[in-house]
């Protein structure tokens, strides 16, 4: 029935074979234009990397820029030199180096470019530029390497590095390619999208060996790269560098904030490192070294280290007590040292006196009044309700969770809730005597130095703050920074309660931190000493100045430096004077701080 | 031992030799496609594709061994079960499979992954053979036509959902088998004419070859028909329809948004968009075209080495061959493919039962379609469709499914005498 059909199928198969072979013959043998296109005119897609944005400090001093580095490249096959001596003179290379460089280039590939002289300076480049034309097979390749001229603020600025496989996977819009450099931490990481710019594409004609033969169709299909935005940092480089100098040989943090705006004037993490170590080809080996360093220079202490705040927390307690109505300026408690240890001062004290003298028993008793409001007949239940209600007040001070600085990996510290104690002791099995350490900023409470500085800003502003941030303008436009850095945050305490607090803090300088006092500048501050079971206590100090029109709020945390009135207060005082006056009038205090080594 | 000798003699060694030759040439080409002259690695290196493909070839030989020692009746018996199992796998693939480039094609655990759409080809072939084996089956009745079509369309629809248009298209190749089994000629005349007219109407010079081929086929069909007068009447009616259709097609295309028009046109003329949709074909043609008569020599290809050709070890593997072995290399491979296909037609025709013959033609249909479309797209004769070149392209699923497909037929063929007794 279908006798002819198998034949038809066989003919069809043969026919397809013949058609394919004919077409193949036409393009492979009869037409040599494809061979020529392959030899000369292959089109290569070349990504045009944009210029990464720069970072300036608040006064226009450059913090990060792109350092052009020139490599003299050689294509061995095209390269020829008639007068070797002259060549060596022009390019300032010894004959041995030239031969060695050429040989190794040749070994790599005779047709692909290899570097002959690496990292030529800009002035060198300008000099040799005119001679290049005389030597075929030589050209200069430009690379940009991130450079940090001030060697400062390493942890705030962060670094860039090759994109990881995980990051590539997360990049759903497929912007990045393997081998691309991205900001990995710090400002470089957080503002990656602003700094990176937009890649362009160039279609180049390359010959079969990959050698450039000009742009495809005169660049009709090319798109130019768009340079990244320049950022203006809130950091005052001079203050930052001064602070870094003061913190040399110490372990800790200094954070200074402009209270009116939340702009971070300086953020010092000590010990630190030279940011230039993490650039270019040395990135990998240097990163390993820094990462292994026992002093943990890569650990960004201001936002990642968490400590019990110690006595500085008493101010927050005072404010919350006032707002709750538990405390009035006239509330008086005896300095009853059977409750908790204290030091010698007149007793009993009112609220002003309690702040000025940092009286522990006062806050033990005041905190009990805040927690046990007798809303429940069970003291356990009453404590639980009281703690959670109190915690709501505290969280508004930007504690117990990340503030939202423009850096990744910010830690939030912790303000314990009833859940924590339920977990540790069991529900209904803990009461005020379990949690009283919180009254003086100890116990299960942790804050970061950034949060401490923010507290100082809140006290200076009488009850509000702006989320601390490191960038004040993108591409010169302050409206391009995230909305939250321009939003006023209210802590829910009436401004008039702050008057007494500010006065007491100004007085406290003369009580517990006499060293911090500066002639003609009114400083309000509070010392703290956080107990450290592992060794010497940590030294804490927060302050703002001038008291009547605060321009700087600061927190200094020096690990293992002992009593807060000493190292921390002195450092803060010097920073304040440096910022407000521009110079230091107390060289002896500066020497004292510089001499302190607490590592 | 005498028995064994006899069995070995019954196996068709000609097709097996061609198969082995194609697999080996393919493997060398995969190595050439990934070869990097700066950092040469051994062809056996497991960190590169050729090494991994060797493992898969080894597995393919194991599969062959299993098929050859299996009971020949098993394929007949499990045809429906396999068909249904793979339909279920196709249904669940989008839910449990791994997404690659917006398609979810493969399922499996860890590094062992298979593409059900590849294997469903041979299960569909078995099901068709089983279905058409019944003595009462007659393709000239509309009911049976529809039933056969349903068996083919179910996997097509499921694969389109993945979505993998290229692989789904392959299933239309079963119409070659249906043609042999007596599907009325008029369908084919209509379909081929339709294709030819569409191409002509879009005004494509590049594809003149397809048009010539199609016209030749149509003529062949008409000549082989018997009722000549009615054919001529049909042709006249068709002629009028053609003119109307080509005008309407032009009209429809001109009404599409511009970017969609471009997308259609670029399928036929890659030079319209040399950097976008036309990139693959342009680069592929440059690679093959630069091969010349004798080629640049093994591992001496430059276009494939500089990554100009995308997918060069999978769907565009023919580029490496064309570039490094020239027209002579292409000639050898195309002759090998055509010989294998023609040999398989001969084997299919010598089957004494319908199950084996239908299955044989299914194998021929699928291999023929892959071979034709894959090579045609690398030289710009056909729009780019992502389907592999049988036995050549890198990848386990494709190699294994083609191997299973082919060797079940070789197995059935080796038992054709026993199977004779089963004819109703």
From TrEMBL, chain A:
GO terms for cellular component: plasma membrane. Keywords: Cell inner membrane, Cell membrane, Hydrolase, Membrane, Protease, Transmembrane, Transmembrane helix. Residues 252-572 form the Penicillin-binding protein transpeptidase domain. Residues 49-210 form the Penicillin-binding protein dimerisation domain. This is Penicillin-binding protein 2. GO terms for molecular function: penicillin binding; peptidoglycan L,D-transpeptidase activity; serine-type D-Ala-D-Ala carboxypeptidase activity. Pfam families: PBP_dimer, Transpeptidase. It comes from Arthrospiribacter ruber. GO terms for biological process: cell wall organization; peptidoglycan biosynthetic process; proteolysis. InterPro entries: Beta-lactam/transpept, PBP_dimer, PCN-bd_Tpept, Penicillin-binding_protein_2. The keyword Membrane applies. PANTHER family: PEPTIDOGLYCAN D,D-TRANSPEPTIDASE (PTHR30627), PEPTIDOGLYCAN D,D-TRANSPEPTIDASE MRDA (PTHR30627:SF2). The lineage of its organism: Bacteria, Pseudomonadati, Bacteroidota, Cytophagia, Cytophagales. The keyword Transmembrane applies. The chain crosses the membrane at residues 7-27.
TrEMBL record, chain B:
GO terms for biological process: cell division; cell wall organization; peptidoglycan biosynthetic process; regulation of cell shape. The keyword rRNA processing does not apply. InterPro entries: Cell_cycle_FtsW-rel_CS, FtsW/RodA, RodA/MrdB. One of its GO terms (molecular function) is lipid-linked peptidoglycan transporter activity. It is a multi-pass membrane protein. NCBIfam families: rodA_shape (TIGR02210), RodA_shape (NF037961). This is Cell wall polymerase. The gene is rodA.
């Amino acid at each position: 029935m279908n006798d002819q059909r198998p034949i038809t199928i066989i003919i069809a198969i043969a026919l397809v074979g013949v058609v394919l072979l004919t077409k193949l013959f036409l393009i492979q043998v009869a037409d040599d234009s494809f061979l020529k296109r392959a030899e000369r005119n292959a089109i290569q897609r070349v990504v045009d990397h944009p210029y990464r944005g720069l970072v300036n400090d608040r006064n226009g001093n450059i913090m990060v820029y792109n350092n052009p580095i020139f490599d003299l490249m050689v294509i061995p096959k095209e390269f020829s030199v008639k007068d070797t001596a002259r060549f060596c003179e022009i390019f300032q290379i010894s004959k041995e180096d030239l031969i060695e460089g050429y040989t190794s280039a040749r070994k790599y590939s005779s047709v692909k470019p290899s570097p002959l002289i690496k990292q030529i300076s800009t002035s060198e480049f300008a000099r040799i530029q005119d001679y290049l034309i005389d030597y075929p097979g030589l050209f200069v390749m430009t690379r940009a390497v991130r450079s940090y001229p001030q060697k400062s603020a390493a942890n705030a600025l962060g670094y860039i590095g090759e994109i990881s496989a995980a990051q590539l996977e997360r990049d759903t819009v497929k912007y990045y390619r393997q081998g691309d450099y991205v900001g990995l931490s710090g400002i470089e990481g957080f503002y990656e999208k602003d700094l990176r710019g937009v890649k362009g594409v160039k279609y180049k004609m390359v010959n079969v060996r990959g050698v450039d033969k000009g742009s495809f169709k005169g660049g009709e299909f090319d798109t130019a790269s768009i340079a990244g935005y320049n950022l203006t940092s809130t950091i005052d480089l001079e203050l930052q560098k001064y602070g870094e100098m003061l913190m040399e040989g110490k372990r800790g943090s200094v954070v200074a904030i402009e209270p009116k705006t939340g702009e971070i004037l300086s953020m010092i993490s000590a010990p630190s490192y030279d940011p230039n170590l993490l650039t270019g080809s040395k990135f990998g080996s240097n990163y390993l070294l820094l990462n292994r360093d026992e002093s943990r220079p890569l650990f960004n202490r201001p936002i990642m280290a968490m400590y019990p705040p110690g006595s500085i927390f008493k101010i927050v307690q005072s404010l919350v007590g006032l707002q709750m109505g538990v405390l009035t300026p006239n509330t008086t408690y005896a300095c009853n040292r059977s409750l908790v240890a204290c030091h010698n001062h007149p007793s009993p004290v009112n609220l002003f006196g309690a702040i000025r003298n940092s009286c522990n028993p006062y806050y033990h008793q005041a905190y009990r009044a805040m927690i046990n409001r007798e809303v429940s007949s069970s003291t356990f239940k009453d404590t639980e309700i009281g703690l959670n209600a109190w915690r709501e007040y505290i969280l508004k001070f930007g504690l117990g969770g990340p503030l939202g600085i423009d850096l990744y990996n910010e830690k939030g510290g912790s303000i314990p809730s009833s859940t924590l104690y339920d977990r540790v002791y069991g529900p209904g099995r803990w009461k005020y005597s379990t949690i009283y350490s919180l009254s003086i900023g100890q116990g299960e409470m942790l804050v970061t130095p950034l949060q401490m500085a923010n507290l100082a800003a809140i006290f200076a502003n009488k009850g509000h703050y702006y989320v601390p941030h490191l960038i004040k303008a993108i591409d010169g436009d302050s409206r391009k920074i995230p909305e939250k850095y321009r939003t006023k945050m209210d802590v829910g305490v009436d401004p008039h309660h702050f008057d007494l607090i500010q006065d007491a803090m100004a007085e406290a300088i003369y009580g517990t931190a006499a060293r911090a006092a500066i002639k003609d500048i009114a400083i309000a501050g509070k010392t703290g000493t956080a107990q450290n079971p592992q060794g010497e206590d940590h030294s804490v100090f927060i302050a703002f100045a001038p008291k009547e029109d605060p321009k700087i709020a600061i927190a200094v945390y020096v690990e293992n430096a002992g009593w807060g009135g000493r190292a921390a207060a002195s450092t803060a005082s010097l920073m304040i004077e440096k910022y407000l006056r521009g110079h230091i009038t107390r060289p002896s205090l500066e020497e004292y701080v510089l001499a302190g080594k607490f590592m | 031992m005498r028995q064994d000798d006899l069995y070995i003699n019954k196996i068709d060694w000609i097709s097996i030799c061609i198969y082995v030759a194609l697999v080996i040439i393919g493997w060398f080409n995969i190595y050439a496609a990934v070869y990097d002259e700066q950092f040469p690695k051994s062809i056996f290196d497991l960190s590169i594709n050729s090494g991994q493909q060797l493992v898969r070839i080894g597995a393919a030989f194991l599969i062959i061994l299993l098929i050859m020692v299996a009971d020949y009746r098993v394929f007949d018996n499990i045809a429906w079960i396999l068909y249904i199992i793979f339909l279920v796998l196709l249904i669940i693939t989008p839910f449990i499979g791994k997404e690659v480039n917006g398609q979810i094609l493969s399922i499996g655990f860890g590094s062992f992954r298979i593409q059900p759409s590849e294997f469903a080809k041979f299960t569909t072939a078995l099901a068709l053979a089983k279905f058409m084996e019944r003595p009462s089956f007659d393709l000239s009745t509309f009911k049976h036509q529809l039933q056969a079509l349903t068996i083919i369309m179910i996997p097509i629809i499921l694969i389109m959902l993945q979505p993998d248009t290229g692989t789904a298209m392959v299933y239309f190749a079963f119409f070659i088998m249906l043609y042999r089994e007596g599907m009325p000629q008029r369908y084919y005349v209509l379909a081929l004419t339709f294709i030819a007219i569409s191409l002509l109407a879009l005004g494509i010079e590049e594809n003149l070859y397809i048009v010539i081929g199609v016209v030749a086929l149509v003529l062949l069909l008409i000549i082989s028909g018997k009722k000549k007068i009615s054919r001529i009447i049909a042709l006249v009616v068709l002629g009028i329809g053609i003119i109307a259709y080509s005008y309407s097609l032009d009209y429809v295309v001109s009404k599409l948004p511009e970017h969609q028009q471009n997308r259609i046109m670029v399928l036929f003329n890659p030079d319209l968009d040399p950097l976008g949709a036309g990139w693959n074909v342009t680069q592929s043609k440059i690679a093959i075209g630069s091969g010349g008569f004798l080629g640049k020599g093994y591992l001496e290809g430059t276009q494939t080495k500089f990554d100009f050709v995308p997918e060069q070890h999978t769907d565009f593997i023919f580029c490496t061959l064309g570039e490094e072995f020239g027209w002579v290399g292409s000639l050898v491979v195309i002759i090998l493919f055509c010989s294998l296909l023609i040999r398989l037609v001969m084997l299919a025709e010598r089957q004494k039962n319908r199950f084996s013959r239908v299955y044989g033609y299914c194998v021929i249909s699928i291999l023929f379609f892959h071979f034709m479309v894959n090579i045609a797209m690398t030289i710009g004769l056909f729009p780019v469709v992502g389907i592999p070149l049988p036995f050549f392209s890198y990848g386990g699923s494709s190699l294994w499914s083609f191997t299973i497909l082919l060797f079940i037929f070789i197995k059935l063929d080796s038992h054709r005498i026993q199977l004779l007794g089963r004819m109703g």
